[in-house]
Amino acid sequence: MANNIYLIGFMGVGKSAVASELQKKLSLPLIEMDQEIVDRQGMEISEIFVQHGEAFFRDLESDLIREIAQGDGAIVSCGGGAVLRKENVDRMQQSGMVVLLTAEPETVLARVGNSTHRPLLEGKMNVDAIRALMEQRRPAYEDACQYFVPTDGKRPAEIADGIVILRELRGDA
Ligand code: S3P
């Protein structure tokens, strides 16, 4: 049965927080893609970007999705750029439900403003730069997702409740 739950969306929309609430509610294994890559490489994301470049990181991301998509019943908190390759999106859609979390650029800035692990926003931690990258990515996110959840002003637990209901409606539970 292809019933993974993939949470996709821009940096700072709350994928990790919602994934952790889902884990409490569903008692399924949780895969934090970024953390998994950091653990396997023994290097922080920013370090991977500096030492090996973004394309190398994207390859790691694709390899990990290929691996995850072969399994079942996992909650997957995806890196913000995981939808940039069509092969990744195809694998996600074929192996589970793909839920897009969104947030206003102001909310994203408030959530990731102090982060040192977002190389793509390094030197660009401001609302305009976040909005620009978000707009550039919007088509990729919208094409990839089957469900769409705005997160501004909502608690991760209530968002997770909604996803649990969607999952039941799909017959994936
Ligand atoms: C990225 C998002 C990050 C991380 C990397 C690249 C992106 O993940 O994978 O810095 O391209 O949007 P989060 O969305 O978990 O911050």
List strands and helices in order, with pairings:
Elements: E1 4-8, H1 15-26, E2 30-32, H2 33-41, H3 45-52, H4 54-69, E3 75-77, H5 86-94, E4 96-102, H6 105-112, H7 127-144, E5 147-150, H8 156-170
Helix pairs in contact: 1-8, 3-4, 4-5, 6-7
The chain binds shikimate-3-phosphate.
Class derived from helix and strand content: alpha/beta
Order of strands, widest sheet? 2-3-1-4-5
Bound molecules: shikimate-3-phosphate
Q: Alpha-carbon distance between the termini?
A: 10 Å
Which strand-content bin applies to the residues? Answer: 5-15%
pLDDT < 50 stretches: none
What composes the largest sheet? 5 strands, parallel
Estimated helix fraction? 40-55%
By DSSP, the count of extended strands is 5
The ordered H/E elements are: EHEHHHEHEHHEH
Mean pLDDT, nearest integer? Answer: 96
Over all CA atoms, what is the radius of gyration?
A: 15 Å
Shape: globular
What is the number of helical segments per DSSP (H or I, 4+ residues)?
A: 8
